[in-house]
Recover the amino acids of this structure.
């Protein structure tokens, strides 16, 4: 055995720097015999001109299964959720067409000419802005995930749900957002001393509203106009949404029409009937804003297939609403031993971080896990630890370690382990 | 005048940290009277349910002018170029639908099941890979611009062309690319000692081919499969393209079907008839691979309009094929004085870097310029300096400073200044 192929943890995990080393070959994958080469590399595409240039591109038809999985309410199709297919994606960015959705009463079609943003309540002078005026304000960009507070909620089920990784944990997506620091507009309005909360409200047909602490809004919230370079799409809040880095998705109000400064929360549906949870001790937890540290192996994951024993790269995503990911550990023996994965640069705060580690699969049963740690010292819990702390009746903020079982035929299933 | 509004360079340029300071307001933009507020913020969208969830999103219909500007050959519509609308975008990422195109014989429609990649020539064993096998190889991600060697070539014209910034300089785009280091596959094939060049060839109907130094390929080239998270789109090389960070776009061969290792370049059309330039001294410059240090103000730029004197944010993009941008200087007095712009983090090597600087426009004529400097000490030249070095007959590698003239009515035009 090659020296570099010496495992550094159980189940065949190898040093994360392995693939950077000179001279290593990765020959576990079958390659075609050189004799058939000349024929094999010919392509029909070479025999006829291709299609013309286009004003706006779209994915290949051969990728038409890489879609958001949508689940709408039959009686009100604009009420529901769609999931990002994280299991089919790579890197850190979620393309705009695949960012997850959560709508309460459909996606409004808003003409920006007739949309206004109101800043009022406990301010010295209320302000109303037209979108075209706001677009001339100074902007800043940041990479940031948005995750629904209810993401991964099937993890609370008593049996492990067998679903693709993205259609389980993909109410989380990551983009480069560009917009105006809300602080700048609040300063222009003049904040009154008694103001402690901000009520954000959208211009959709549900008039979705929610309360945020003023301190957070002043810290790092943006009025976001651009996502991955272009203007935000309708399902992500066109023409303007609130960006609340690292906090529950529901706070990132889309189609934003007003921000009202108050001295107390508004007690809206989405902070009382929802997003409030009964704890084992009988107390209710409310305003649990920050999305916890979390990670997920996307390859291999449920529905994928390992063909042969040999070298593989395990990869996935980690993120934390508290700050930066500093470490992701991977286990190939169900948590008995762990090895550090490589973190893809740049590693950014409140942003997806791609991790990778080489793995020599011996063709036997294995259980893969990943565990993320952030720069505030938070560590992703095992499922039993989360349940000990929060009880069995949870719905929101499920961030436990995800376990994938590899069978000896190379198939992958979801297990509680 | 507010202390912070004291200019740090001619023409009203202000300290780049200005907008981060507490207490500053940005009141130059007209805001509506509070009395009309309640009516103004109502929206038709609130009165009816919006549309349902979707499997794959697209931009708002109100943004239908934010498109690639295409210029195809009338006789062969698949031969031509399209430009990224940089003047309408923000941040660092170019969304996949707007990445610039350069096709020689159209966009092939390739079924990945029948596409193969051949590695042959001066290797110990030639290899043929199926796409599905390659997708299991270890991957890495990087943010990287691709710029056509012919980008901005209208800059060589004797009169300044009046065109939107993106439709002049937008044969440059920036994405997060994910793929396999080519070095890994070459090591698996075994490189023979005499190999010095790599001939890359595409599977399109032009069978576009070109030569690259082996050293560069081993250094940082990727076989790229994913762009901004999803699989590369047809017009960007689906199912696989070569990524050659920082070098001429033409080298980033799309629909890649083979890499042949040789001891000399192949002298293809695109390194002889094109991409070779006659210098003033009568010598021809060939294999000028690296894209030089460059920058461009995108707002304000040609076709945009300043409405009122007051505070503005000047913003644009800088990049260098040599490495990282370390500084962008902006002038508002036609180059007499310069001030440092703020660079948007993260600043990455061979990647777009967004810069921003506040500017107090006094309502008079002004000429705006930006000048980028990279970590190898390269500085973007003035136009006359570029022409002194390269002559009047250039076509490729135009990277001179771009000048926008602001008229006293707030309109913006392109000038040589």
């Amino acid at each position: 055995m090659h020296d570099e192929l010496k495992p550094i943890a159980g189940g065949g995990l190898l040093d994360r720097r392995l693939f950077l080393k000179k001279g290593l070959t990765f020959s576990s994958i079958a390659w075609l015999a050189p004799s058939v080469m000349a024929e094999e590399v010919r392509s029909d595409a070479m025999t006829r001109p291709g299609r013309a240039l286009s004003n706006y591109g779209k994915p290949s038809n051969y990728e038409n299964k890489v879609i958001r999985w949508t689940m709408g309410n039959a009686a009100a199709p604009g009420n529901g959720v769609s999931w990002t297919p994280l299991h089919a994606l790579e890197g850190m960015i979620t393309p705009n067409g695949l960012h997850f959705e959560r709508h309460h009463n459909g996606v409004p079609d808003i003409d920006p000419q007739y949309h206004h943003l109101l800043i009022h309540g406990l301010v010295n002078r209320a302000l109303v802005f037209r979108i075209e005026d706001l677009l001339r304000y100074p902007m800043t960009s940041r990479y940031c995930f948005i995750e629904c507070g209810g993401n991964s909620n099937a993890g609370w089920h008593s049996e492990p749900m067998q679903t693709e990784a993205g259609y389980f944990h993909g109410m989380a997506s990551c983009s480069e957002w560009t917009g105006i620091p809300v602080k700048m507009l609040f300063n222009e309005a003049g904040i009154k001393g008694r103001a402690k909360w901000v009520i954000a409200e959208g211009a959709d047909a549900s008039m979705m509203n929610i309360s945020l602490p003023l301190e957070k809004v002043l810290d790092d919230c943006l009025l976001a106009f651009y996502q991955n370079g272009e203007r935000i799409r309708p399902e992500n809040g066109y023409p303007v949404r609130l960006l609340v880095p690292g906090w529950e998705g529901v706070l990132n109000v889309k189609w934003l029409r007003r921000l009202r400064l108050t001295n107390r929360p508004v007690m809206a549906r989405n902070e009382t009937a929802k997003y409030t949870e009964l704890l084992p001790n009988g107390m209710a937890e409310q305003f649990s804003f920050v999305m916890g540290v979390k990670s997920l192996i996307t390859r291999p994951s449920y529905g994928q297939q390992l063909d042969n024993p040999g070298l593989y790269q395990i990869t996935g995503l980690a993120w934390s609403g508290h700050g930066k990911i500093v470490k992701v550990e991977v286990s190939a023996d169900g948590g008995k031993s762990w090895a550090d994965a490589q973190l893809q640069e740049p590693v950014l705060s409140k942003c997806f971080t791609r991790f990778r580690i080489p793995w020599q699969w011996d063709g036997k049963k294995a259980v893969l896990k990943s565990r993320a740690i952030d720069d505030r010292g938070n560590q992703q819990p095992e499922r039993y630890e989360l349940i000990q702390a929060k009880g069995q009746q949870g719905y929101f903020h499920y961030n436990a370690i995800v376990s994938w079982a590899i069978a000896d035929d190379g198939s992958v299933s979801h297990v509680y382990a």
